Amino acid sequence: MTRAKHIMIEGHHLFINIIGYGEPIIFLHGGPGSEHRFFLPHILPLAKHFQLILYDQRGCGSSDPLPGNNYSIEEEINTLESLRKELQLEKINIFGESWGSMLALSYAASFPERVNKLFLTAAIGINNKGFNMFKKELLKKISIKDKIKLVSTDRKANKGHASTDDLLDILDPYYVFDKNNLLKKSKTIMNHTVNHVMVEDIEKNYDLTSHVEQLANIPILIAQGSHDILSPTIIEELLIKFIPHAQLHPLEDCGHWTVIEKPDEINLLVEQFFQSEVEAIKK
């Protein structure tokens, strides 16, 4: 059963989509600036066992924009905490994808007593070093021809003569292992303003290195594509080194869009990881 609706969080509408019944899992989409539909329909088999709680972050998808475009990591942490309270959940399981993995870690570091488990995929790292490395590694992969197209399209976008979709049409093929998987991605909306403002905040303020002790008692599983822009080996340096109890599961023949390229494997990992929480509660 699907229950999609707007709820009021701190004076602004937040769009949520709740699917299925059972132990809740809150999904944090990437971008920043994307929306919850990125996960659909790929994670729907999980609704047989869990309640899937998806939502569009501030200014994303069908959620209200913030006045003054005051988007920040701190704002998103507070939004997630307000959502937890609104849904009357004492503790939450979180699935964070790409930028959503950074948000998941940030929330857990701020409210460790409110988190059961973290499942991260297409992870970036524990601080802005990973975010900056992601951009550098992506640029290495882009062909000269596409770099030229990217610069030209970006200039047009700044003048209002091209859209974010035009930019993504150039970049998206570099996010997958197999370009045929581009056709499996649901049509989503990217908010360029949210992306721009959040990227600046991430570059300036994302650093959890002095807060890793807050994560020490939270089970964490990371599923990383073998051919992600940040490979499993790089994630060992950017994340596992700081959170040694976290488990790293490489996904073979997979790029950054793990949910789209390897949905069956992701769903099985999620089911096994969070099902153990359900079984522990029953005992």
Automatic annotation (TrEMBL):
Belongs to the peptidase S33 family. This is Proline iminopeptidase. Keywords: Hydrolase. One of its GO terms (cellular component) is membrane. Residues 24-263 form the AB hydrolase-1 domain. GO terms for molecular function: aminopeptidase activity. It comes from Ornithinibacillus halotolerans. It comes from the Bacteria. Coiled coil: none annotated. InterPro entries: AB_hydrolase_1, AB_hydrolase_fold, AB_hydrolase_sf, Peptidase_S33. GO terms for biological process: proteolysis.
